[in-house]
Amino acid sequence: MKITRKDFLRLSGLSFLAGGAMEAARAIAGRSSAATESQSTPVAQSVRWGMVVDLRRCQKEKGCTACTDACDAAHNVPRLADPQHQVNWIWTQPYETVFPFIQNGYAEQSDAGIPVPLLCNHCASPPCVHVCPTQATWKRADGIVMMDWHRCIGCRYCMAACPYGSRSFNWVDPRPAIAHINPDFPTRSKGVVEKCNFCEERLANGLKPSCVDACPQKALVFGNLADPNSEPRQLLRQRFAVQREPELGTGPSVYYLV
Amino acid sequence: MFMFEKAIRGSRQYWIWLFCLLCVILAGLAFYLYQLNLGLGVTGMSRNVSWGMYIAQFTFFVGVAASAVMVVLPYYLHDYKAFGRVTVLGEFLAITAVVMCCLFIFVDLGQPARVFNIILYPTPWSLMFWDMISLSGYLLLNAMITVVTLTAEREEVAPPRWIRPVIVLSIPWAVSIHTVTAFLYSGLPGRSSWLTAIMAPRFLAGAFCSGPALLILFCLILRRTTGFDVGQKAINALSVIVTYAMVINVFFILVEAFTVLYSRIPADVAHLQYLYLGLDGNYHLVPWMWLSVLLAAVALALLLVPSWRRNPVILPIACLAVFFSLWLDKGLGLIVGGFVPSPLDTVTTYTPTLPEWSIVLGIYAIGAVMITVFYKIALAVHGEIGEADVHVPAVPAGPADR
Amino acid sequence: MRDRLWIAAGLVLFVAAITAPFWYRPTPARDLAKLPELALPAKQKQCVAPVSYMRASHMVLLTDWRQQVVRESERKYVAFNGSVYQKSLTATCLGCHNKEQFCDRCHTYAGVSGPYCWNCHNASASRAVAASADTTEPRPEGAHLAENLPAHILAELASRTNQSLPGSRP
Prior knowledge:
heterotrimer, A: alpha+beta, Alpha-Beta Plaits, two-stranded antiparallel ribbon, 9 helices, 32% helix, elongated, B: mainly alpha, Formate dehydrogenase/DMSO reductase fold, globular, disordered C terminus
């Protein structure tokens, strides 16, 4: 049989392509079926971590940054000079930008301008998780929206998807901007997205999130929202609470008592 | 390799042109290494405007890639013979545009070394996964079609029959790449200016005018520099396509503007206000957006009069106007405007930096090299520039030429 | 005939390039032949897996741990001999090993500059107990590893068995 160089190249190219495609198809079939399984596994929602922020209490301590400081120290969150590159886990924004729907005409705006603590809402249906192309962010059975910084490719699709501005990208290497590195928690490298993790590393040790422990007014109340007798649930029964942009159907796990 | 022997013989100007492009590519590469070293902080992007030029240009060039369908469909489905020569140019443009798209995505990644995580951990509920599938599939389809049809043409035989279903498949596939790209944006709950069902149709309309406009410009350049003529009938037909698509595109933009402005929902109005009037003292994009409007108006005025659109001087002006109007609208305003104001009502200025521009230009130069080489091959196969290159001794037919 | 010169020159260059690693050496051959001096943990004689396994497959173990801790919230590692460890690079591995005198030396020797662990995980600040290159200190015979783990890890391991969740009430 006579075979020309061109035929040989063509044939070997095709074989490579076919081999690669087969491998890819196998990987996709295997992985995605595994992934869908883990997604569709019915989880008896016995734990859904959540937080209630009591703005009345929070307001008492003017200029307080205890929660931010505690969180930043615990998680090696950098303090960057350029505000456009800032990384935020828990931080504050003025009331009227957080709850635009509460501003109405002549209603008394006694709360205008007060700082409202913001963090990841750990949504029931998180848009960031839906869009992530590598499952570097996913929702745990206990409601925590986790980040895998080993897997994140830094496409920032999750930042576009998050309606709360809760995600930050490491535009530069964060390490030089961390005053004291906490050796028990990793820093991040440049080029990955990060956000509040509800202190899952402390929950695993039976501790509450560091912001909750740090708050001098006990304005942050953390607990299991799935448990009707938990502290946050009791508060939600007694007081009027709002979530951020509930109309989007994301189901935030963070409530605000106004 | 596939007829690349045709691309390594050329005139002095050809090599000077390629050398200049290489310099631009190297400059872009140097700035990319700089960005890789320091992180994406060297760009103008920020925590509020977290996508910028790269993703916007990606979006625009997906449109250019999809627009090949405007020559493929009439030629192959309707047997429109006038597109005989221009079709392969359109397909080569599509291949080039898809490669540019992939590069624009790649340079936007914070961790480019992990790009294969998209394949390693396939995530069918993420639109980005489907964008990867549709773009790579489109690239493969077009590469296959051009290789097979050009080879057949060179050997002066009819293309094999099995290629026809592949060509037919490439037509809906072209529509799919831009639809999926629109879905990347239009499915996000928190970005009201993108949250519109008309995003995909609007993308396609914009693609079907900007892509063929670019193709017309390329055909006119080829006619001038190489004497290769795709035929006036093809150019006229393309200009009609550009005209209709531009009218529909402008119509879609106005339809969107009506919904937003008449309903007066503040969150939706804010994005348009930022783009066209300025918001909170930030007028950064206003002149550019109005330039886009002006160019669109000029283009429509020139294109809608049949005698003008057939005029060899007016047509390129109209095509340039279409291209740059869309480039500003889709390749800048659409993406940046979607991020401002942010969900927390912050207005953030986004200005592309020097490294960012250089990297974008580098990718443009890669595209230009690809187009140059591809068109050289296509033209050599058509046998049109044989006379122009007589001073180069013909390469004797070796085994590779068989 | 003119081409012959070019072909020969090209061949010489090609051969020179591919053999470069053999004749261009930043370190002299005698240093390359010498095995790296690794500082072994002073207090422990048994790692979380047999030495042969760790030598060949520590990277597999580390990525497995990484996957299990981050993605599956599975933090406890039961070793081949029944000892229980916390799956942690900084707490468990660096609890005994010293990065510079153990990890780096071997990685430098093997020319594996690869793993980006230290871009994020903090080796310098680790509470490395081991460290000293001197391993003459007699090892406690039959010492169970878990006894030598830092207190907070022991507390964590204990809490694993009797898991109480904050804020939840029975």
